[in-house]
Amino acid sequence: MTVERNNLKQNTILQVADLQVEFRTQYGVLTAVNDVTFQVSAGETLAIVGESGSGKSATQLAILGLLPTPPGRVVRGRAMFGGEDLLTLSERRLQDIRGRQIGMVFQDPMTALNPFLTIGTQLAEMPRRHFGSSSHDSREQALAMLERVGIVPAVKRFDDYPHQFSGGMRQRVLVAMALICRPQLVIADEPTTALDVSIQAQILDLIQELAVREGTAVVMITHNLGVVASRCQRVVVMYAGRIVEMASVQELFSNPRHPYTRALLASIPRVDAVKSRLVAIEGQPPDLVSLPPGCAFAPRCTHRIARCSEEVPQLNLSEGGTEVACWVDPGTIDSENVRHET
């Protein structure tokens, strides 16, 4: 399914359309990403949320050409960036883009760094590889960036190896690597994992500063809805490989329309609302190898109607500029009590 967007802003940095990603497993073909379409503009921070296995990370790995192949493959779709379709580029061309024009903060800081190279060597390689900086200049840039992400004194940690850093410190190094070349687009997959609250704020401020000053577009994959509310402008909600809702942050938090989005918001504590208890989302995510007919969320949804189990809903424009994929009238759902109390 293609969601038409004829009035895209001229400053659109990344436009993804009809992306479908499959993994061949011993149990069958698993559709991890199904008909995903979104765009992000210069200076904008777009959040992608959803529970584990919803397709958030697989979407970004496919865009960057980093899917493990086999078993993964891009079945169809486009990812337009700078006038080029990232999904059709050679590995050599992608290597020129990754790091220089697109920065990536990987989800697992324990495995994303080369254990045989020092932190300084890995970080200084970025400006040296992409800008041809001298050894001295690249070292100075790397030291400055380490200081900015809170690794101090940087000069004493520059020649340390990854195993000499905690998980949170390694996460800061990954953020530094993603930002050092001042890319046009930053894809941050759980960028504040394993960081304490004060360092989280520092890292997010740094990313936001880059977005404002350089016009960098940011795609932030996160489970932290507090980060979404305070740092992002728009939100994509994914479930079972599909986008179920796409809205501005204000609209999503004030008037969520998809039952899954409402269930997510009802399941977390909020300082601006008094609740006697949090509401759990009953049931389990579906098996992506053998998805049920109709809406994948239907078996867990207390508001489902007959059509939900028969036909897959497509994204349609709703009031407030929200796009939602649901057959149920949002007006019939109580946003504060998605699940029946027991």
Written description of the protein model:
- The strands form two sheets. The chain has an eight-stranded mixed β-sheet with strand order 6-7-8-3-9-10-12-11, sandwiched between helices. The chain has a four-stranded antiparallel β-sheet with strand order 2-1-4-5.
- α3 (119-131) crosses α4 and α4 (135-148) packs across α6 (167-179).
- The protein contains ten helices and twelve strands.
- It is an alpha/beta fold and 342 residues long.
- It has helices spanning 56-63, 91-97, 119-131, 135-148, 154-157, 167-179, 197-214, 225-231, 249-254, 259-266; strands at residues 12-25, 28-41, 45-49, 72-81, 84-85, 102-105, 185-189, 217-221, 234-239, 242-248, 316-317, 323-324.
- The chain is 29% helix and 22% strand.
- β4 and β5 (84-85) form a beta hairpin.
- The chain is globular and about 65 Å long.
- It has a domain at 12-98 and 233-332: P-loop containing nucleotide triphosphate hydrolases (Rossmann fold, 3-Layer(aba) Sandwich).
- The two termini are 38 Å apart.
